[in-house]
Specification:
Layout lengths: L1 H27 L5 H9 L9 H29 L3 H30 L3 H20 L8 H25 L8
Helix pairs in contact: 1-2, 3-4, 3-6, 4-5, 5-6
The protein binds 2-acetamido-2-deoxy-beta-D-glucopyranose (NAG) (2 copies).
Amino acid sequence: MKTLSLLLLLTISLPSIQCDDDLIDQICKKTPFYDLCISTLKSNSNTQNSDTQGLAGVMANILLSNATDTLSYIRAQINEASDPRMERALAYCAELYIPVVKYNLPQAIDALSKGQFEFASDGISDAAKQADACEKNFSGPMKLEALSERNKLLHSLSDVAVAIVKLLLKGLINFRP
Ligand SMILES: *[C@@H]1O[C@H](CO)[C@@H](O)[C@H](O)[C@H]1NC(C)=O
Ligand SMILES: *[C@@H]1O[C@H](CO)[C@@H](O)[C@H](O)[C@H]1NC(C)=O
């Protein structure tokens, strides 16, 4: 019985794999960071049989998991910081990331699943804004390369997710190439 349903599942999902790749390709071409979009979506198994709305959700969830990871990173750095200015700048970044991780992104993901694309787009773009604000607070000799890279990646992932949601706003909900 198990084998049978597995076979059935394979038969159903196999022919569409090519199609999904095409959809991912078409969608990523409409985002500002094609390579990042492709590598992010193709490394995620939840993209199989997804339409545009599903792919936007996958991207938003990866953004959330990146933001969550960055917040943990910031907290760990706060514990290690010996320079009080560095500690303050990190604490400021944590304050920026907490609402993104706790409210903005989870609410945006929820809105996305309900078809409230405008609200979703706002919440997702907040992540980029806060990453920028965090980045700006580090200047001059105070620099934390690993955090800068994370802020930059978060900004790019947010831009990609917003671009996909914009396709949904244009009515391309079940857009297939
Ligand atoms: C963050 O995003 C990158 C780019 O897609 C991905 O490779 C990485 O696994 C993500 N990290 C987390 C913790 O989700
Ligand atoms: C950066 O953080 C410091 C505290 O470390 C704060 O006093 C300052 O106003 C912040 N700068 C910006 C541009 O937010």
